[in-house]
Each structure stands twice: as structure tokens, then as C-alpha cells.
Amino acid sequence: MQRPCYFLAADSKYFPYACLAARRILDVSAPIDGFILHVKADESDIQVARRLLGDRVALLDVSDFMERVGFRFGTYSIAAYVRLFADLLPQFDGYGRIAYTDRDVLFNRDINDLACQELEAPLLAAHDDYMYFRPSYRRTFRMQPGAPYFNSGVVVFDMDAVRVEGVLERTRRTAIHRQMNDQNALNVAFEGKWQTMHPNWNLMSNGARDYRFSQAYARHFAGGKPWGSQIGVELEALKIWRDLAEDTPWNKPFRQRLPFERGITKRFLRRFDAVGGLFGNDVHRRRARYDAGKMHQIYARQAEEGAMAVQFPEVLGGFG
Question: What CATH number has the domain bearing residue 30?
Fold first, then answer.
């Protein structure tokens, strides 16, 4: 088995949240090398992070590295693009498998189980159902008809394949020349080169209402943030975030603001998507016809079989 590790990336503003997410990984995982790649985090926060994480997670300031490579980011945050340089960072030279996770992801299962899976492609990623309600992305990004789209909040790179095929170099060129954000550039460069991840490893809070925090191997709060609006953040998940932050200066944003979960009304209103579709809302129409439970089973089966990403996912899901 190739040697695994994981990393998160953050600028100074989001560095504390990356540290809390990493602390959760430590709490639920067997030993594995971890990294937080940061861009000029405050020294006071770094001291808190060292106390919280000990020597089990390396804190690396990549500001100078990113400056030396001369990458121009436009209006996007430098930290968002750090993962596109995993093949150039010397700290990763000894690793064959690298799992990346966003700072708004809360793990319930050992990250080794994710990073050590068999791979037949350079990348392991989860389908992003939300994009299949807007399939025009294929034309916009000049992808093939039926091309699937992944969410890059939780991914695993097979670094041997990535280096040999130069896929991250292609991603960087795409991001520069076509002025794309990191996730879109990854989807273009890795088209046809990614394997389906079990959806429970990236169970997104802004997607279907069918699956909840307790079912997740890793819950991705892609909608309301636990330190922000808290919409869609289950109370049991919010408590975990609050407990992680309890003895740090970062605890205030995680206070529960209402005696109930925010976002319940939003989930309820999605039951009436079909009505919205009658009035011309194409996203509602597609979402109403999409069988999220069926697709979850298909993705899970694809993942267990080690299959490449399924084509035309919206057709399999009931529309298209």
C-alpha cells in the first residue's frame, strides 16, 4: 500500500477552522501524517494550533512557496489553489496517496479508510448532484456531453499517476488561461480520470435532504457554515464543532443561536420543487424529478466496485 497522508489549506481567516477540522480527524482516526498548509496565519493562532494538534499535524506556511511559483490568482484566494500544487511541494514527495479535505468538513470515520482505498485512476472524488441540476456546465467548461462533475471538498490523489500524467500541471494551466476557480479547473483537467467516491465520504449539507450527519463518513457543510449562518448544520454536528473549539479563542462563532436546527424550513420547502418547476424554475423541476436515494445507491455501488465516474448521472437519477 502506498504511504498516505492528508492535508487542509487555509488563509489566516480560516486557519482556525482548518485546525478544528484536523483535530476531529485526529479524534476519529488511527495515526496518519497530517498537514495544514496555510498562508500567513497569525502567530497567536499558530500557538493555539500547536497546543490543539501537538506534533501529529505539521503546520506549513506556504506563502513563500506560492510567491516563488509565480501563480496569478485574479480575485480568488491563494489558499484555495494550494491543493493544485501538491505535486510540487517537497513535503509530499514521500507520499503515494494524499487525501485533501476542506476546512468545513467534519469526519465521523477514520480518514485512513478513505486515503488507503484501491484506485484505478489519478483521483477519487464524489459526484456533485447539485451541478446536475444545471448541466450547462458542460458547455461552459467545454467538457464532453454527459461528463460528470465532482465536488473537490474531499478528494484523494494517487500521486504516482498524477505526477506521471501531469494532471495537476494541466489543472494549473487551465485555471490560469481560462480564469477558472480551483474546483472547475480540477474538473476540466481530471475529466475522464476520476473514480467514484462513496457519497458518504462527502455528504454535502446543501444537497438532498435525504441524508443526515449521523449517516456521514464525512459531513461537508457546503451550505451554511457551523461558524456562520449555521443553516443546515445539524445540532449534533454543531455540538461537536463547539466541543472542539471549547478551550480555544475560536469558540464564539460556534455558539448555538437558536434552540432548533436552522434550515428545517428550507428542507421542507424542497418537497414542493415540482410546483416551482411548473412556473418555469428549471432547477426545481430537475431537482423534483431527481431520485437522490437511487443515485446514492448507484454511487455507493460504483465506489465499492472501484468504477470510474458514471456518465450522464442526471439520466440515471430520473431526468435528462
Answer: 3.90.550.10
